[in-house]
Write a structure and sequence with these properties.
By secondary structure, this protein is an all-alpha fold. The protein folds into two domains: 64 residues, Arc Repressor Mutant, subunit A, CATH 1.10.10; 36 residues, no CATH class. It has six helices and no strands. The protein is elongated and about 60 Å long.
Length: 108
């Protein structure tokens, strides 16, 4: 499997509870606990391919949830607005910061 994705970790945080127990646990072990496919396979008593397939199915499911619900996109947009407000405060532009924070509040 390629580099472990920060996006996938965030999707797991947002939607992990919507996955089956096995999918959620496998993904948490892989992304959060940084276990290898082999380590998870040994713990679960299945093949590495089985672990890989479970993770791939879970990722597809997480992406579908994000496509339908958009919670991660909303979170990232709010984060961006908050950062922009902080930049305005650092530049002593309180009015601009206030506008960004008001937009952020409206979105929430």
């Amino acid at each position: 499997m390629k580099v472990k994705s920060v996006r996938t970790g965030l999707l797991l945080d947002f939607y992990g509870n919507l996955l089956t127990d096995r999918m959620r646990t496998t993904c948490e072990e892989y992304y959060n606990d940084d276990l290898s496919l082999a380590e998870i396979a040994q713990d679960e008593g299945i093949s590495r391919q089985g672990v890989y397939d479970t993770i791939k199915r879970a990722i597809r499911q997480l992406e579908e949830y994000e496509e339908r619900l958009g919670l991660l996109a909303l979170f990232e947009k709010q984060q961006s607005r908050a950062r922009k407000a902080l930049e305005f405060l650092d530049d002593n532009k309180a009015d601009c910061a206030r506008n960004e924070l008001e937009k952020l509040i409206e979105e929430m």
